[in-house]
Each structure stands twice: as structure tokens, then as C-alpha cells.
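An instance follows:
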Amino acid sequence: MMPAATARSGRNPRRAVRGWLYLLAALVVAMVAVGGATRLTGSGLSITEWRPVTGAVPPLSAEAWTAEFEKYKDTPQYRILNQGMGLADFKVLYGWEWGHRLLGRIVGLVFFLPLLWFWWRGRLSRRLGLGLLCLGILGGLQGAIGWIMVASGLQPGMTAVAPIKLALHLTTASLILAGLVWLAAGERGEAIAPAPRRLRATALLLPALVLLQIFLGGLVAGSHAGLVYNTWPSMNGDLIPPVEGLFVVRPWIENFVDNATLVQFNHRMTAYLLVTVAILHALDAIVSRPGSGAARRAIGIAGLTLAQAMLGITALLLAVPLWAALAHQVFAMAVLTMAVVHARLSRGTVVARAGTGVPETPFGYEAMSVRRA
């Protein structure tokens, strides 16, 4: 039941829920951006303990800073890569990792406190509440995955985290973002007719391909595969590297994680597949539903995937400078967001509940579903 005061005012309470979900999505994107900067600056191993509560407070005295620095000096990364680093440089590393963890705590608060309020006010449907519960569990799991990832980089002989755990951490964050956007787009207070079955199927395929590509990109980042084969479209003269180079590691399954040649090749091939599917989907939508919201969204996705591919090529040719790598990672979140909104709206949405008043203004990519005059 909707509060009577809200009904009389003609305001749709679902809009507040959608705004909250999109705020959370923006915070997750910020989390991914700060996490990418943390990785690219080599800061991720500067905090050697997982303290979910007390870790929110950084060192506040010279003695506390010295104690944290001594813990870092006991890590393989310091002994192998950063021997002789001063306290001032360590504070920079520590600041990035502390900021990343603090942002994670903020995301948790922004999730749970409004969740309790909306639940108490009866603003959450059973389906939405179940979806949010699943995302809350996934968010808690993400924190544990993050620490497992960091712990992998503290093992003897390691100077960075394990690539597979980095890829898993990034992909889990992307799943959380996708879930938030899916739920928010489904709360539209305006009826949208479902797209034809073929378009709906391809629209669902696109975010799955984007998530796969994000996972493969995490493997590229974790194994530093972007620092080899800095040519395009060939890989140092070969469109397809020799098989013996693709499967040089034994056992062969480990090539998909530890062999920089195969890791980069897989990332390239999946990018080509994603761009091809996006373009064909856009052409299909233009022909079958000209001028529709589905067609406009499909065109937008095709444009974003092409731009992302060009950004990835630029990063590769420049040997992955920090700005290009970070932009490529963050732009992947934009592609995912657009693909998820498109997939959700392609299923159609129902009319807002009776008495909710004026139509809602679309958020972000949702505006592409509104028919122009």
C-alpha cells in the first residue's frame, strides 16, 4: 500500500527507489574507477590486514604510520619491487587502497540504510526486495573476494595479486552494477511494449558478452598481457599467433590465465564478437522496429562498443598508459549499463500502480526508449 499523503501529492514513490538504485550504480562505477587506479599505481598490497570495522580509520599518528609501513616492508612486493621506498611514497600507496576500501564501506551504508527505510515504508515489492537481498549477499561476498585477492598478492614471491582473482573481483563488481541497473530500469512507471522475440534474445545476449569481455579484461590486467603484442590488427605480424605460442604452458588449461599471448588473443577475439553482435543487432532493430526506443538503444550500444574497442586499441598501441587503461575500464561500465538497460526495457514494463500520479522522467540511457515527437 502506498501512503495516502504520497498519493494525494501526485508523486510516484517508485521514482525515489529508482533514484537510490541509480545512485548506488554510480557509486559502484566510482568503486571500479578507484580500484583500477589502485591496481595501476601498484597500491593494492599496501594494506596487509583486513579490518572491516577498525580499518575505516587511517593511521593518525607518526607511530601508527611507522607500524603500517613496517608491515608493508614484510611483503614480497616491497622486498622485490619497492626496496628503499620512503614513508612519503608509502603514504601515497596506502591512500589509494584505503580510499578504495572506504568507498566500499560507503557503498554498503548507502545500500543498507535506505533499504531499511524503503522496506519500512512499504516501497519495495516482493520481487524487488528479493533482488535487493541477492545483491546485498553478493556485495558481502565481493568484500571477501577482495580480501582473498589481496591475500594472494602477499604470498611468497608474489608482487601482485593473482590474475584470476582480480578478474573475479572486477566481474563481481560488474554483476552488482548490472543487477542494480536491471532493477532500476524495471521500476519505470511507464508502460513499454516488449520488443520482438529475436530482438529481446539478442538484447539479453549483449550484457552477457560484455560481462565475459570484462572478465577477460581482468585477466589481461592481472597478467599484464597488454604490455606485449602492442600492435594492431596483427599480434607482432600474426593475425592468429602460432598454436604452440597459445598453448605453451602446461597443463594446457592454465594458458587461459597465465599465458599472456592467449589471454590477449581471447580478449581481442571477444571484442570483435561483441562489436559484430552489437552492430548486427542495431541493423536488425532499425529494419524491424524503425524509430522505436529499442532501435535507438541498439544504435547507442553499437556506438558505445565501437568507441570502447577503439579506446582499447589506443591503450594497446600506447603500451597501456595509466589514463588509457583507466578510461578503458570505466568505459566498460558504461557499455554494460547501456546493455543492461536495453535488455531490461526490451522485455517491456508494466503501467505504474494506480494513483501514482504523473509519468516519470527517464534516467540516463532510459531516455532512448522514449519516442520523439
Notes: Residues 9-369 form one domain. The CA atoms of residues 220 and 263 lie 6 Å apart. The two ends are 35 Å apart (CA to CA).
